[in-house]
Amino acid sequence: MIALVTASLLPMEPRTWESLVHQTNMVKLYGIRIAFFCGLALLPIAAVHAQDAASPAACTLAKETYHCDRGAFRQALSAAKVIGVESVPVSRMVSGQLTELVAKIGKTVAGEGAAADLTFSLLKRDLGGVIIGPSGAELATLRVYGPAHGGERGDLIWAEIYTGQPDMQWPAVAHSLIEQFRGSAGLAGKASGEKR
Hints:
This protein has 196 residues and is an alpha/beta fold. It is built from five helices and seven strands, in the order ααββαβαββββα. The protein has helices at residues 2-9, 14-54, 70-79, 92-104, 170-184; strands at 60-62, 65-67, 82-88, 108-109, 118-124, 137-145, 156-164. α4 links the parallel β3 (82-88) and β4. The longest helix is centred in the N-terminal third of the chain and has 41 residues, at 14-54. The N and C termini lie far apart (78 Å).
């Protein structure tokens, strides 16, 4: 390090000084350009975070548990016209049950890749291993997401968890969870066109 410092203090030719000043100015100019473009790149992220903060319907995560506003969810569901459905693992039978649910509440099912006001996503929980003990394992979750922001999934506005016997078949778990969701969301007995 000392050799570098002493070498830089040696007298230089005027032309070398001009070159060094020019290079220093170019580095500063590139640094300003990089900072400017990084700032521009962060603007969309800040806008998404501002939308997230402004979304009162979004669920919040506290101590590994989602807390959702039932009133805000019901309002979003009431306002929705088109609802997307998905199941993981993909199952034609489960997707059919979700499609039937959407039709029963008087909404239109979004086509593959089409924009939707809400998305119903039914996810099977991977229990893995051997379950020892009484029943009551968390088997599946029905998540409801709000409208997408710039091609990304929207905010989580509702989460319904189904707990039951670990040896239940996936279509039976899905059916039970959908019925539970209908009850807790105030949709039980609601048919197409019926007002609540």
